[in-house]
């Protein structure tokens, strides 16, 4: 890893701990259907990718969840189950983000959705007194707002266009190998992050 001039971070399991299986389990518990069946329905429908690529808004998403799973969930039940995958953000990571932003242009690039961003902001407010994750970064690049999705090349090129830097000046950290592979091919400096063995704070000596 050579000298970089900006840092671009993924969100889930890099900054905020997540466990998508908890969402599957929550939908299964409410609907009375098996975990395996719910998981298969979500996978087959490409629900995450479609919603997080901005293909439909929150209300449309909730209706598609009802149709996909075949159960008349309330809006509240859907949001609660959907957000159950969001866990905690250790203090040391928040401290690192504040330190990084003081030294480098700091950006977020996440496959995410409006419901999760709203819930994440509440987590940051309740646990760290930070009202919005926007305050921690120079700019957020969110898939559902961009109408794009990692690991498609176009989303990385859009980021570079927006920040006005060549890929070689940007350090990108993500926990998905496909996302890292595309970024590396474009020329980013990259770190594949394994959340089971490393913490984001391990990569920086500030």
Automatic annotation (TrEMBL):
InterPro entries: HAD-like_sf, HAD-SF_hydro_IA, HAD_sf, PGP-like_dom2. Gene3D superfamilies: HAD superfamily/HAD-like, Putative phosphatase, domain 2. Pfam families: Hydrolase. It comes from the Bacteria. This is Haloacid dehalogenase.
């Amino acid at each position: 890893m050579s000298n970089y001039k900006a840092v671009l971070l993924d969100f889930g399991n890099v900054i905020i701990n997540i466990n998508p299986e908890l969402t599957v389990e929550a939908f299964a518990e409410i609907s009375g259907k098996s975990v395996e069946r719910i998981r298969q329905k979500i996978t087959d429908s490409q629900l995450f990718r479609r919603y997080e690529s901005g293909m439909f808004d929150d209300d449309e998403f909730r209706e598609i969840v009802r149709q996909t799973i075949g159960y008349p969930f309330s809006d509240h039940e859907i949001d609660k189950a959907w957000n159950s995958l969001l866990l905690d953000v250790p203090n040391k990571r928040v401290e690192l983000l504040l330190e990084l932003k003081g030294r480098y242009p700091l950006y977020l690039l996440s496959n995410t959705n409006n419901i999760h961003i709203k819930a994440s902001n509440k987590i940051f407010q309740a646990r760290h007194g930070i009202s919005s994750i926007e305050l921690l970064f120079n700019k957020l690049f969110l898939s559902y707002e961009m109408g794009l999705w990692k690991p498609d090349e176009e989303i990385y090129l859009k980021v570079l266009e927006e920040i006005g830097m060549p890929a070689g000046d940007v350090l990108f950290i993500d926990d998905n190998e496909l996302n890292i592979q595309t970024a590396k091919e474009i020329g980013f400096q990259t770190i594949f992050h394994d959340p089971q063995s490393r913490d984001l704070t391990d990569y920086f000596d500030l």
